[in-house]
Queue: 3 jobs
Job 1
Amino acid sequence: MARLLTGVGLAAVLLGLGIAVVVGAVSTPLTAKTAKTLKLPVALPILATLPASSGPTALSGSSASRPPIPASPTASASPRLSPTPSPSPSPSQELVPTPTREYQTPTGRNELAWSQAILRAFGDPLTSANIVSLGYWMQNEAGHPPWGIVGANNPINVSQPGYGGTPIHYEGRGYYLYSYPTVNDGISAIVAYLHRPSYVGILAALKAGAGLSSSSLAAEFLIYSGHGYSSVPDAWGASQGRPQS
């Protein structure tokens, strides 16, 4: 009986010691060693997972709502973002006309420059058809007494008063042929003269960029030339060669 009690008592003592070890109530080499052994396996995995589970992106939740970062332009160039400019073709290089004297019709590059300047003054396109037609028109009017009269800075021979013009030849029906002091004065006189109601078809053809070769303009050219020609070019204008464009 004493042995049994001793066994029971010993078990009770051991049980009490175990409870004390678990709750850390008894500080012994055994409890200290056991505590380290228990904490290390639990604490290390938790510390190892903190960076992966608690960064700013994960906490803010903004990665799903933000737009994607655009790729570097050098990595993927979009034609829309960086278009390659394509040169717009022009019929010819724009030139500046030089003055012409009385009885002098512009030729070559200066003829081309006058055609361009007249078209620019009208606001019309510098198409090849327009430029060549105006060159031919100057050639239709070219001449020298007794076969023709050409005003200074007036290559298509308009009869427009003003603009510093000086009358040099009476054309009949109250019209005079004029010389103008400068290129700009001559071009302004040409624009004013052709805005008369008699030449709406000519202006429309130039505005469309179609040139002046249509036979539908014959009546207007007859009025303009005093029945001297009905087409641009006529035989005389064409005989001087095709104008530059």
Job 2
Amino acid sequence: MQTRRRFLKNAAALAPAAALAGRRAWALARVPLGVQLFTVRREAEQDLPRVLEQIRRIGYEEVETYSGIYTFSADALRHMIVDAGLRAPSGHFDYDDLGTRFEYATELGLEWMVCSMIAPTMWDSVAGFQTAAQRFNAWGKQAKAMGMRFAFHNHDYEFRPLGTGVHEKTGYDVLLQETDPELVFFEVDVYWAAQAGQDPVALMRELGPRLKMLHLKDRAAGFPISYDMNPDSGHFEPVGNGALNWKAILGEAERLGVEHYFVEQDQTRGPAIDAVRESYRYLSKMV
């Protein structure tokens, strides 16, 4: 029979571990880990239900949709996601047809409509980003009216310096300055920010409450920066296998109250699902 003294001693020894487990469980419940399905696009466009089941078995709780799977009706796609035990709070849409996709997004049950990038013809001028900002404001207003929110996802081209002298700014500066902070939010892709020479943590701090989601993928060290998404810009690694400071990134995300984390890897050396699994192993110990 266990004595009272031994019981108290054992309970004290177990308390730190229980507290840690509780904190980790709380963190995962508050910000579930998700996958941007573009990562597994080849498999998803062949057998989406199977891919969704694989993602759930790894431990992910959420997915973010993308245009390549909108060949399904919104109702059919929503059921596939739910049947796999997942939820889809966010979806990426192309700039050219996002304005026609609001009803589809609401039928899919999305909370967020995200513009994945603006048209390449707009990348090289302040005027191009100003036009995008005006459209983002309109989309943000429409999304709000339909019970959703609107956000923009970055790559590297937005951080190219535009203009000259005292008038020099980046496209990202334009989007921040000329969009309504109550209607337009941001999903930061930490890889592409770093690829453009930005400090992801500093960018997150600059965005503050406008930062609502993160794309998580790692970047190999020792490569030059870029501003044009060229084929030489891809130095992708599973989270934890590159040079990004994940402790600082995730710590700042928690401080700012980021709502969703989506693992994404544009290209993988082996099967994409293996890269997704590797990222999960690392992140599940961090959040």
Job 3
Amino acid sequence: MYPFERFTERAKAVLTLAQREAEAAHHSYIGTEHVLLGLLTERDCLACHVLNALGVELDAARAAIAALLSREPPIIIGTVVPTSRVKKVIGIAFDEATRLGHAYVGTEHLLLGILVEGEGVAAQVLREMGVTADNAGAEIERRLKEWPPEKTASTPHGTAATRLLPMGQDVRQLMLAASAQAVGTRSSAIGLDHLLNAMISSAGMEALARLLDVRRLTAMKEQAIASQDYKTAARHRTEEKQATDALHAAVTSWREELEPRTS
């Protein structure tokens, strides 16, 4: 789903606060309502200032969320992990940052993600309080003209990391799975171990094995060509083509496995 190093420090703090809100409420999931409370608890972030300007305060939002949840059936998840809706909100936040031409993902993009997604508890509460994607977007745009940029992970100016291409849906889903791994282990950032754990699945392992086959056969083919053993090179070229086709089939299965399940 996305290069999470693009999150500002305040955006990361909001997600940590969202997890704490879920734990404090004894909820077995992290929902959009917890993200909203995280935005309002992180008092110095842009999203909090925008929400306050639009008449949304922490205590009132907490009371509105409690009232709405009392009318909703409980969500049961085995461990405290983000719901599929929160994952979608995070994906939209990255899209909003790209749309606005921002190289970072800040609290304002998380707020827009909640509002654009529009179906979560947080969006319902904000809608009842008169907050929409349009008026929040206008307030964000107004404040961004004077708001100091939030810090992200330190990256030299102009490097490739500041010019990342948009990620495909399959990579987004993989990064979301890694994020869930990180949250489940109470980590404050996604590490290689979380990414590897997210990749370890039947389809994922098959794709990785096929990739190694392609790399091995390519090296053998090039070695045969360098030795002018063209008969062996031709055989390896055929095997390389077969391995590449198998890799594409395995990657397709992996993409299907990463597709979010809806119920």
